[in-house]
Amino acid sequence: MIRPTLLLTLVSLTSCLAVASSQRAEAEYYVAAYAEHYHVPREFVRAVVEQESAWKQCTVSSKGAVGLMQLMPDTARRLNVQNRCDVSQNVSGGVRYVAWLMNRFRGDLRLVAAAYYAGERVIDRRGLRYSNPDVISYVSQLRNRFERNSSPERILRRTR
Fold it and tell me: Among 65, 75, 116, 157, which is least packed, fewest CB within 10 Å?
């Protein structure tokens, strides 16, 4: 005989998994749509979301970044993102930022990843000579995530 508390726990867990699954599907939809619209590799956007928020829609970092793509308040304002927890707005803003960084750094995804993490001004000054271990680790982890999801012709070059 199944205890009522165990049954209630199982029903609650199943309900939470269904909600998480539908939220992930919604997020994946926006990632694909905005990546295509702004001509950004979908696998790169997916890697950023995985790295930044692990697909948690309204997560808040200790530094104040919010949402799937962990937009900072100033970046969100610059991109006209009103609600950083709104999946569509967050992903749209994050992908537009990635597209802007891709243009600024001439498509070098290593620099795009570093600038996404550390800010474009730091990477403008330092380029591939950045030595901050957190930036190096972030770029390396993002590259690994990107490679797992990518076709061979889009693989990021190794950071040196």
Answer: 157
